[in-house]
Amino acid sequence: MAKRREENSSTFDQAKCPNCEEEQSLMLLADSQEKAEKQKRSGKPLFFVAQFGCVNCKTLFKWAQRAPRYVVGYHGCSRDFAESLRSKKVSVSEWAYSEKSYEWLGKGVYFWEDAPGRAWQWARIRFPKNPAVVATTIKLGACVDLADTKFTGLLSGSFLDLKASYGAEKPPRPLPQNRNAPQRPGEEPDEDFKVRKLDAVVVNNLITIMEKGGAKIQTVRCPFEEGKAAFPGAKIKMQSHVQIAVLDRECIDKRIWLIPEVM
Length: 263
What we know:
By secondary structure, this protein is α+β, with helices and mostly antiparallel strands. The chain has helices at about 30-40, 80-85, 115-125, 150-165, 195-210; strands at about 25-30, 50-55, 60, 70-80, 110-115, 130-140, 145, 180, 195, 220-225, 240-245, 255-260. It folds into 2 domains: about 1-65, no CATH class; about 65-263, Phosphoenolpyruvate Carboxykinase, domain 3. The strands form 3 sheets. The chain has a 7-stranded mixed β-sheet with strand order 7-10-11-5-4-6-12. The protein has a 3-stranded antiparallel β-sheet with strand order 1-2-3, with no helix packed on it.
């Protein structure tokens, strides 16, 4: 491709060229993956954002995620907070991040993807006196999608970067660890390491590194196995789900619905 002009990934969310506006004209460049493999062989931490080119105008772009995907997100909360969102006493732009040290996908506004039943399970345990679940549409946008090996392959580089950083401190600081959570009333004993302090710092560090490289990450998405086996010998778990952590609140639709209780 003769013409080379790189654009920031945060400006696109559709598979049409933002330069010439030709529909469905963008293609993944094969040498993007080749460059990533070469970097991996060099022993350096691997942070790879796919590179795309327009077959019409020959412009080059870097994207963290190409697909213009929308999903329905369910958020477990208290009834008071749900009513505040519905009445717009709390706007979507004011929706606070979950930033606890053990969040599974690092900081963000958390949703269960297309899973009202799992959202209600969680809400009843966390807010036993006044549980609620709200739903809205989430635009994934520039998404670090950990259901895709293109992104899970980046986590080891983030881990090694953190390990070196913690080890360089005086005295060296150990990395946080994932562990089982204390049992709450109404919950089964934790066997899934639900306190995921290590995962949280690794994901947060990956986002920081990618954004320093020019990407603006809007969401993080990941499937999780959770809970007991669905039946004897099963590898399907009773509480398996997909979580989304939204970093850019512009990806959250301002239309909020209260969801009837699901048992």
